[in-house]
Each structure stands twice: as C-alpha cells, then as structure tokens.
Amino acid sequence: MTDKNNPRPRRLRFEIFRYNPEDPESKPHIETFEIDERPYMTLYMALSEIRETLDASLQFDFACRSAICGSCGMLVNGRPALGCRTLTADLPEEIRLHPLPAFKLIGDLSVDTGIWFREMAERTEAWIHEQLPFDPDAEEQRMSDDIAAAIYEGDRCIECGCCVASCGVANVNPEFLAGAGLNRIARFMMDPRDGRTDADWFEVVAGDQGVFGCVGMMACADVCPKELPLLDVYAYLRRRTLGTKIASG
Ligand code: SF4
Ligand code: SF4
User: What pTM does this model have?
Assistant: First the structure.
C-alpha cells in the first residue's frame, strides 16, 4: 500500500516471468525491473513504462484498458487479475507477475485465451438453436424482463479467463468447462429462443467436464473482475440437471 504519510514515490520492484516458447534457446526464468510509482498507476501503466524504458521485448496483452476486452489477465502475486484495473497502490512494493495458467503461452505474460474459449464454444454449441426456419418478416420474439435481465447478467462475461486460471479442476482437466463455460451454458439454457431440451442440456453440462466436476470452493467467483454471480449459475445448472435426471428416472 502507498504510505500516505510519506509523499515520496515508492520504488516498485517487479519480478516478471520471462519465456519465449518459440525460441529453443529460451528458458523460463524471472527478470526483475524497478520503476518509480506514480499516482493512480495501474499495472498496465507500469508494464508499458517497463517496456518503453527498460526492455522493449517484454510481451503482455492489453487493448481497451477499461476492463472490457478481457485481454490483460495475469497472475498478480499469485492471484488472477486484470492488469488494467489493478492499481499498484493496492499492492506491496514487490510485485510478482506470471501468465495465466491453463492457457497456451504466447510469451512472457501473454497467453492465448482464444483457443480455450473457441474450443469451449464449439463443444457446447454456444449459440441459439432456433427451432423455426428464419423468417425476416416475423416479429421479434418476446421474453420476460426477469429472463432478459438474467441473460444480460451472463453476457457480461468478458472472457478474461481469470476464473479458468484460478480453478484447480480446470488446471488439471482441460475438458472442464470452469466458470466461464458453465456461465455460458446457463445463459443459453435460460434463453427461451433456444430449442434444446433438458435431455440435450444434460449431455452438455452433466458429468465431470460440467457442473458435477466442480468442487465448489468458488475461487472462480472470488477472482471474477465482473463479479458475475457464478454461485447462482452453478446452483441453477445443478437444479436443471438433477431435475432432468429425476424426471428420466
Ligand atoms: S467452484 Fe468449481 S468452477 Fe469455480 S474454481 Fe472451484 S472447481 Fe472451479
Ligand atoms: S466469468 Fe468472470 S472471470 Fe470468468 S472469464 Fe468471465 S469475466 Fe472473466
């Protein structure tokens, strides 16, 4: 934390994971960089300063800088977080940065979350399964305000991958859908336009890859930067899935 009684800027010491998997000469190691802290400095600002003034080869991802694009997830002192919304003032002077686990490493702090999310979306068919042929003249389908609000809540996920990286199950089982995948499934299960039956959903969400593989320690909810109600999502999925099982005997 910044010492409010001491107006001098802190000297921040960054210990950053470095590795280029494309370079056979590269070995995973930690490099240390020091910079002065500035008011309202975020990790995005600090890493940009390190890259501009100390090491132009440092790899990390940022795009929107406002917690919308989901590209700047990283381990900050061992905890998944977005670099753009993490203030250095909320961290000690020594800051350890690693790439998110569970995703393909591109280099240093940069990972490819897109591979994981694309595979998850294809496996769960994360799109509306319409029952009727498309009619451009048809009126838009209506839904209740409550359902619309619940779907909107699920759609707030920015696919940052922090929940996946925090999840012990997802780290040992690449098939596990984790917070982001389970949230995505619930979003389509709630949607009245999606014609999949409970029996169809049972195949997608039951089992070790789905909600029954979750051990329920809620690390995912603790780290989600959008504070999605993942606890409610898992309860909803369990209710729907168990209801299907009981109904089918
Ligand atoms: S509660 Fe479930 S999905 Fe969340 S981190 Fe734990 S095992 Fe993973
Ligand atoms: S559920 Fe939260 S932590 Fe997980 S990908 Fe979406 S926004 Fe990120």
Answer: 0.92
